[in-house]
Write a structure and sequence with these properties.
Blueprint lengths: L1 H34 L2 E3 L4 E3 L2 E4 L2 E2 L2 E6 L5 E8 L2 E9 L5 E8 L2 E9 L5 E8 L2 E9 L5 E8 L2 E9 L5 E8 L2 E9 L5 E6 L6 E5 L1
Parallel strand pairs: 1-5
Antiparallel strand pairs: 2-3, 3-4, 5-6, 6-7, 7-8, 8-9, 9-10, 10-11, 11-12, 12-13, 13-14, 14-15, 15-16, 16-17
């Protein structure tokens, strides 16, 4: 009799274990399916900064289309707020921009593109503010400008370039104001001038 009770007890444990695994599997499938829901953004209803779909906070992708039927906007939502990749497009289908969203704000890399498809800029954001490395490009692919932001203000070392790749200017910013010595070159790379911004009025140190 005791062996039967032990056997029954062991079988019950196994049944509960299988049931738990099955429940986890079903939950995972449901969550995966929800994450892959795609709806037109016009189907979302916004209340208190939260997007709802069929009376529930929306998780999935919302899209907006142009008059020609091409996609204009793709935004990933999680629990009613943009969270993940957001992409916009030109009418020719090329990307216009792509941004990482977190809690409904820009958080991470934000890139913009020329209509040709070449990268135009790459910036780093934190809670909708430029915060970190940034680089800008000419349409031919050459760098135009690069440096660092803090709260949308230029700080530290920045450099500017001509569209042939030659450095144009270099110097430091403090709270978006030029500071220290700035150096300038012509398109052939020859030094043209140096300026000091340590006073309220720029002081010319060298001028060719």
């Amino acid at each position: 009799m005791g062996f039967r009770r032990i056997s029954f007890f062991n079988n019950s444990i196994k049944m509960n274990k299988y049931f738990l695994l099955f429940a986890v599997f079903i939950s995972s499938v449901f969550n995966l399916s929800a994450a892959h829901i795609i709806v037109d953004i016009s189907q979302l209803v916004e209340r208190n900064d939260t997007a709802y779909y069929k009376a529930q906070p929306f998780t999935g992708m919302a899209i907006m289309k142009m008059a020609n039927g091409n996609i204009l906007l793709e935004t990933t939502y999680e629990n009613g707020v943009p969270n993940g990749l957001e992409t916009t497009y030109y009418s020719n289908g090329n990307k216009r921009s792509e941004a990482m969203m977190g809690s409904g704000k820009y958080n991470g890399k934000v890139k913009h593109y020329y209509e040709s498809g070449n990268l135009k800029s790459s910036e780093t954001y934190k809670d909708d503010y430029k915060f970190g490395p940034a680089v800008y490009f000419y349409e031919n692919g050459q760098k135009q400008r690069e440096g660092i932001y803090s709260d949308c203000k230029e700080i530290g070392l920045w450099a500017e370039y001509y569209d042939n790749g030659v450095k144009k200017a270099e110097g430091h910013y403090t709270d978006a104001q030029k500071t220290g010595v700035w150096t300038y070159w012509d398109q052939e790379g020859k030094l043209t001038k140096k300026e000091s911004f340590n006073t309220q009025k720029p002081n010319m140190l060298f001028n060719r």
